Amino acid sequence: MSRRCKRDFQIDMGRDHATRLMIVKGDFESVSMAIYGDVVADSHAAPQTLTYEPRALSSITPAPLPPVLDPANTRDPSQLARQLLKLIPDAPELELVIRLVFCLKPSNDDWDLPDFPYLHPDLDNLPAELDLEKALRLTTRPVPDDISPDTVSAFAQKVAQSIDLKVFAALSDDSQWSIDTTNLMDATDLLKIFTIASMEDETTLARLLYAAANADVARRLDRPEFLELLSSMASDYNTNRDVRSTARRLLARLRGWSLLEDAFSNTQGDFIAAASTLKDIGTEEQSFGIWLESMIAHDDIVSSLTDNPVLPVTLPRILLHRASFGSPSQDEFIAFIVNHLLLLRQMTFRLECMTDNDPPTPSGIDAEHILVDLAKDPTSFLRSNFVKSILNIGTSTSVITDDERSSMRQAAFIVDDGFSAAVDELLRPVERPPSFSSLRTLRVALAYIERELDEDEESRVLDDFWEDAKCSLSGCLSDVLAPLLDEIRSQFSLLHRPPPNISQDVVAHLFWAIDDIFRLFLRLIPVSPLPSRVLRALTTQLADTFACTDAADMRYSQSSPPSLAAQETRQSCIDLIRVLGNQPSVASGAKPSAQLVLRVLLEHGLQSEGLDPTHHLLQVFYLIDSLLPEEDCAEHQRALWIQSVIPTVLKELRSFCRALDTENKVHFIRRLSMLDRGAVGVGEWLLLEEVKDVSRAIHTLRINDLSEHKRRVVQNQIALFFRFFADILRSSSAEWCTNSLAATEEAPHLLATILTTLFDSHLAPPHLVDVLDNLAAVYDVFDNELRWAIVLGLWRSIQPPELSDGRLEQRLKSSIKVLETITTSYLDPVRVTAEIGSLLVNLAQRSDVVDESIAQAVVSLLEWLARTTTSVPKMGNLQTISSEDFGAFRDRLKDMLTVEWKERLDAACCELVLGNASAPLQNPTTVPESVELSIHDIEELIRQNIPMPSTPPRRPLNQDVLGLVTVSPPAILRSPAVIGLTKTYQNNDFRQLRQTTARANTSRLPSMHVDDFESASSPTLDPLAVPVQTPTQAAAAMQYIPEAFPQLGPAFSPI
What we know:
Shape: elongated
Protein name: Virilizer N-terminal domain-containing protein
Structural class: mainly alpha
Helix content: 55-70%
Number of strands: 4
Organism: Pycnoporus cinnabarinus (Cinnabar-red polypore)
Oligomer: single chain
Strand content: under 5%
Distance between the termini: 127 Å
């Protein structure tokens, strides 16, 4: 190193990096270097080709909570709360805490008493005559857990002696329904208390609703008489709207309790309905408190939970969306119960208080995160307490930014301002490109409209919307849906590469917004059928959405928000397309909606409009399959589709079926045939059209100047047909297929022509042999022509040398069996003997030993020839096989035959006349099942179908009346009877008119640009000197010369 400075430099370059260039700059006398590492390949070695190998990104798996901190994954969900209470000195029991927090709401004075929270009513020293007001005041404090049942029973008896409805309902404020109120209900006659007149008060029904959150109360109210009373109140639109809504909720809660209790212990329970009951209970604090205390206090419910331990669930699905989306497990249901109830007033109020986060604290930051997560669900804004908490969020937040706070407030104002604000939001143009904020606001408006439909009569909501928006709700929803779908389509369109950059949250909320609109349509269509314009547009939008949901499911990971949203929206598409197909008619005598929906789907399936055409067609096919009625549908529904729907869309049906791939085409035709059951014969017609298509394709192959690309495409079409035909014959619809072909006069002839043409062209499509084997099994339903084609095909199928002896024997025997049933007069002796001779040559050339059963089959064939020779002498002339080859083959046969069969062989051979030389065999050409074409080849094929432009022929003038007036002969114009068609000029009027017209001509030249013409000045005309004639000269010029003016003809007559 340098004399002045000695330093050691260490460079850690790693094994992935290497270089040969090192620059050392400076004034050195000596330099010492030590270089360590692997030797790099020499420069003359061949350079490595770097190839890109895609690697899958590891998915992020949420970390679950420890079991001790996760109530959803423990045997006793209350264990964590009880352990936390033990950390407080002299802490009350969990049951008492629940009553005081959610149910009773102690007064401010009670909080300051030294015995708080152990303040209980004195029920042991009741007066002889208990005043109802005093009894009601006693229920404002919780009774102790160790109270005697006799004391509670005595209290209930005294209250029952003088009770009225309002006092009875007021007792629901007490959380001790499992002790006091149930005894009180047992001591009273509920039907005498609860009548329509006595329950018209909204407060009474609301308190009964709270009380029904207790299992014991729900069991006692779940009586047919009381349920019938509630049903009449819920359906009577003359009563108050809030009373009807509360009656419906109480009715649903009483019916849902049995499902809820069953879901705790039954692993196959109805968890969707149970979750809906929990959702309703969790909307009010008193209902939730009574339910929670009931869950803890009832030993039977607790034991049912412990008997079925749940598996750990990290993030349970929200089970409140729809009943048709999936089937959740019991583990997810139990986890959902614990993770759902964060929107209660107590919870949101505490979260709101914790957001005053100055200085920031961990709990405040967590509270902000919880509020932001809750605000992502638009149904959260339907809670008035949550809206109040959002509007009260201050500016001193750590996680919630100003934009996020403004966005949440904008969504909250929709609910705070009411119905008109939701209508205005739906009428506002959708933001393009969409943002999470605008989509959330839109979804809140949609959720608000859905809640209005839940709480009031649909017709009234529709009338109110029309009054505010001046348009129908269905039309407005269709207009909102269009731009949302355009944004979704842009993400999966082939025309946008790369697609617009949109975050996954926005894509998910786009799907969810569309799903919200679809669910509103599900509510509206049964009560307000859609007009044809909206129905057509909605069907098209639904098909595109369905295709995009599958594309999103393939692009995004299964646990990502876009994939989950797409799966839910996909189910809504299936539900909605079925509802659209069953929509009631708008007017009497109108066409069924299923006809329009099916026609639109069939046409739109062939018009992808930027989406992947193959994928789009397949997805529309799935929708059509969901739209068609099931095989076991009602007879009136089957009759509607078979008689009024399908016969009107045959053209579209055929075009759509032609574009399907083989597997789905088979399923489609089978589906239609099973729905039809032979009434119209739509399946048979489609099958016949397939046969006609392949017949035309085979005739196309006979064109001499057919291009190679076109020939390959046509051959592929033939191969696909036989694959389709073989799949049907292998399915359960094989009998229907063969009977359908035999029942039509045209199909057997076409099919026989197809087979014989293929054999004459020496073409062997895949699956042809399978088709022949299946047709040979049911030969008796076909005519002579098709039977002979089957026999000929079976003989040709024996040619491959790799064919096993078993298959050879089977096909040979089948061919003989079919051949013996053909009318002898139909057969062409020359063709039959030529084919049999080629068959014998093929068998003679096989190197393996002939099996005995095969030898016997050959003898049977020769015997048939010998028998037929008596009626058709030429049938014994086997000119395509030489006597030498036949003799050698006969000797091989005799080696495997018994004496009896040898004698039969010799007798048959005596009737045969053999040829001089064997005809050479021609191996068939295998038709490829797939075809590969370049873009240029496809372009050339398309260009071949474009007709050459040609000049249209000149049309002759029509000799009608107007033509006579327009092109008039001179005779009629010179006739003195004609007035108005001609003008008489005097002196120089005609010449002056021509000069004036020339002066006024301001037309631009064809070569002059219009801008130059407009800016140029008008042309100036220089007058020319005209020589003036003398009167003598003028008279000479006007002298009459007969030769110059021939005599006028007769007047023109059109007759």
